[in-house]
Write a structure and sequence with these properties.
Length: about 190
């Protein structure tokens, strides 16, 4: 039997950064030794700044890492993975936002996202194992678009059912299945 060393879980929030009643926040409190990429205080929409913050958080961790990203955080991981600076054991990529399609009112526009380096969404295979969870009723990404991201990234695709965007507005607070996915990725 092969045993694997412990891994640090690094949470990668989306553009809304820290949200107190978000499943990532709940899970970060429950997983001993986990870390979260800190929120940006300036140039909040800059992809370059977000990827640099992710890389800085990764460089501060010794040993194996499991990434747990949500929404635009998934896209930050996909961009970072184009030029990785360290090995990643695996990643849970939950409800990525489809920023190549206009987002609802209150979210960044396509011109803002383009100006800040977000487009296009990388389609190259990720250099680590990953699970992509899609929602059948996500207002920020169609189910088939998320499936196409997962296929491009060579990720395991999971149909999460009708889970909205996995945020407090759709009833997620705690998301119990996240624990199970993380445990699968530890192997």
């Amino acid at each position: 039997m092969t045993t694997f060393p412990p891994a640090t879980v690094l949470f990668v929030p989306g553009l809304r950064d820290h949200v107190e009643d978000h499943w990532q926040t709940h899970l970060a409190r429950e997983i001993a030794g986990s870390k979260t990429v800190p929120p940006r205080t300036k140039d909040r929409l800059s992809l370059r700044g977000r990827v640099e913050a992710l890389d800085e958080a990764l460089q501060a961790i010794t040993g194996d890492v499991i990434l747990v990203a949500h929404s635009a955080g998934v896209l930050m991981v996909a961009h970072w993975a184009q030029r990785p600076t360290r090995r990643i054991r695996a990643a849970l990529l939950a409800t990525p936002a489809d920023i190549e399609t206009p987002l609802p009112e209150g979210y960044p526009t396509l011109p803002e996202l383009t100006q800040n380096g977000w487009l296009p969404v990388p389609r190259a295979p990720l250099p680590f194992r990953s699970i992509v969870v899609a929602s059948r009723n996500d207002p920020l990404a169609g189910f088939d678009r998320v499936r196409s991201f997962a296929e491009s990234w060579r990720s395991i695709f999971i149909d999460g059912g009708e889970i909205g965007h996995l945020n407090p507005a759709t009833g997620f607070g705690p998301w119990p299945l996240a624990h199970e996915f993380i445990e699968l990725l530890r192997l």
